[in-house]
Amino acid sequence: MNGLNGHIERAKGSYCKLVLIAGPSGSGKTNLMRNISKSDDNPYLNLNLELSRKLLDLPIDKRSLELPGCIEEILSAFPDDVIFLDNTELLFAKEMDMDPLRMLQSLSRKKTIVASWNGLYDGKTLVYAEPGHPEYKLYKQNDIDAAIYSMSEERMIE
Q: Would you call 57 helix, strand, or coil by DSSP?
């Protein structure tokens, strides 16, 4: 946990203040995020739940357009410098038609964002879902402006 806390502190001074915690479902991302956010007294948000509340009343064809503003509105309710975002799957939904990594990087210019990433990172590529899955995303190292903590490797990768 100390390594992740240190990385969060270093991220605060970066242009994109983004720390991703990458790991498959059931790897312990949620417990890790809850424990650190609680010990540091930072907000922990279930992003899917918060976004669902905001998007529910919007027509389906308007949701992707309103998504960035909804996320910014949710985050602006917290004056904290660090926010933990868990359950980020809605960002990857095909119908949202967005680039989740770019969205998180953009949001992290204003606040330090520690976000769960339901996928794998091997030091060269960051993957979400499996090839052929409609929500599959693959990013090469040079496209990633974030620190990544890999749950499968249990180490920080910069």
A: coil
